[in-house]
Structures are given as structure tokens and as C-alpha cells.
Amino acid sequence: MRMTVKATRKRLVGMAVVTAAALSMAAMPTVASADAVGTTPEAYEAYLVEQVELGDSGAQETLDQYQELSEGEQEHFVDLLNDPQRGQEIGDFLSDVSDVESIDEESYVTELRKEAADGDVVLEATLGVEETETPPTTDEELSDPSARYYDRSAWYSVSDTILGVKVTTVKIGINYRTTSSRVVKVYNGWASHRNYVWFAEFSNSPVKEWISSDPANNATAETIWQGKWAGFSWDARERIWADQSGFKGGYLK
Q1: N or C: which end of the chain has fewer CB within 10 A?
Q2: What is the pLDDT of residues 57-67, one digit of tens each?
Q3: Whole-prediction pTM value?
């Protein structure tokens, strides 16, 4: 996938993606009350309100989405959230994937959407890029007065939604430098996550970043997420790659 970019113009591109019940894994859990937070619709709403009051801006988005549900939908939401079978579904999904080491980044097509629970549980992804034309800075760059240089940031975010309510998110990004035709430097890769499932545990390995060899010449970053859901543990690799055109591909497998 490629995105056309222009100097000094910022563009954010969103899309829906990937799978199953699979990402209530998204983060280290926020501290929850000693009682069973979320076992009722009222308790889950109170939990979100508490997170908002603690200054979590992401919790406000989830709270707004949750409050848009009808009473019956909120009951169904809590049933899905607390279903211990979801941990097994997540493990099954992550173990049933192709060998990520054999993926060809140049031909890989980022998945758009997968569902579970008759479509009530969806894994969605959002991707984007920001870019700014910047002046040459090094002696090497200054030696070619005709070259143009760009600092770019690409990111790939995957969220688990239940009845349209975003409950978890994992995100990976990469900051890099290009000419108009190729990647010349990777500044750094980074990862972040949010979690509004109090009993889900999640952490990630240090982010690795590199420039892939020609002809791909992509700025690439990846991390390994480790998660636990209702007694089931799993790990998944999240990777993003981008070039002088912006985001090219990504996966969570």
C-alpha cells in the first residue's frame, strides 16, 4: 500500500483491519478496584469514569462510545468482555498464522478486517503518515544542492472493539528521513498501548528499527507484544514498514 505525499503537508489515513476477538490484549492493565470491575454495565461505566477523572484522554473516547449503547447492548458488551472463552480464541488466532519471517514486504497486503462473535467483536487498524520537507543538514546532503529531503513519521495502530467500543489499542511507529526517491536514515521506532480491560495484561519488547536492503529500502520497526487474557498467554509481533511515499504495510501476528 502506498500513499502519495507532498512537502509540508500532513496526512492521516485511516482504515479498518484484521481479526477476531484478538486484541483485548492491548496493554498493561490500569489499576482496578478490588471488586469485579465490569461484571455489570454500571460497574464498567464507573471504571471508565474513574479513568477519565485520572486524566486518561483515551478513556473518554471509550466512555463516549460505551454510553451510546442501549441498555441491552451494554449487557451484551459486558457478557462478551467477561467471556473466558475469548482468551482461548485469541491464542488460537495468534497461533494460526503464516510464518512472519517469510513475508515479502513488497507484495504483502495489509489485512482490512476480521470479525468474531457474529461481527460484534472486530479488530480494527488505523494507519497514517506525517511528512515535512526539511533543509539538508549534513555535509553529504549539502554536497548535492538539487536533492530534497523529508522528515517523516509513519504509524500503525490496531484496536479491539466490542460493539463499536474501543477497549484496547497497540501502536507502533517509525520516524525516518528520505529523499524524494529513497529512505536515507531511521531516527527511531516507538510503540505505545492503551487498555480498558482491567484483567488483561500486556507488555512489549524494546522496539527494533532498521532500513531493509534494496530493492525494498523501507524504514522498518517491530516489537513483540506479550499478553495474558483470562488465564491464556500469547505473544504477537507488530511490524510497520514505510518508504519515501509513506506507509507501505504492517501486521500484528
Answers
A1: N
A2: 899 999 999 99
A3: 0.79
